[in-house]
Protein: MBL fold metallo-hydrolase
Organism: Rhodococcus tibetensis
Amino acid sequence: MTLAHPAYGQVRAVTPIVSVVLENNPGMMTLDGTNTWILRAPGRDECIVVDPGDEDEEHLARVAALGPVALTLITHRHFDHTGGVQRFFELTGAPVRSVDPEFLRGGGEPFVDGETIDVAGLTVRVVATPGHTRDSVSFIVEGEGTILTGDTILGRGTTVLDDSDGDLGDYLSSLRRLLDLGAGHGVMPGHGPELPDLQTVARQYLDHREERLAQVRAALLELGGEATVREVVEHVYSDVDPQLWPAAEKSVNVQLAYLRAPD
């Protein structure tokens, strides 16, 4: 028997401003499920919701009931974060903002990198962090030092880059940008548990990516420059459960595109 995660359906306070509701949509790519974040200033009724999740009526209704929702923010386009956008808008009437115009609702506008959003007694700063997807952004809750990273940094394991529009060069730049924000930022990821220090995990992510990139370079030297994605995965990820190779293929495909790009 598979036991349900104890956090499903629960509102869990993480800081005086930030709470999370874990959606019951576990999987290889979503870990325990998608984290829907609720930001509420002390003493205020209105809140900001980050990533309402996918088309799960129970989850969407539960989050909407935590309102009134003043604004909905989207970290990136993947369905497990955005599939419920339209229904959530119907439930709350709250404007929706994102990078991708597909998800804008209620007069919400596309993000501008570095802008600050002042609503519901909170100030949230937008940080463009493309790489996992082209439209990925992170959000800093000013005055608290909390950062919501979407899938750019996860609470467990490492991020798979989407080979349809992800870009390793962008991702490395995004990790360096997050690293440069300095110590003291608590990390609220799109999946997995929160982490205490952005600088530490960003450094770990950068080290991991550089290590994997070196392994892919070495594989190409041994297998030949025209080696296929699967051949490289079998060579580099030989110690990983083959069930995880399809996810690894996405990241390797992005790494090969990075290595094979003209200077």
Summary: The chain is about 30% helix and 20% strand. Residues 129 and 173 are 8 Å apart (CA to CA). The helical segments are 57-64, 79-82, 85-92, 168-180, 198-223, 229-236, 245-260. The first strand starts at residue 11 and ends at 13.
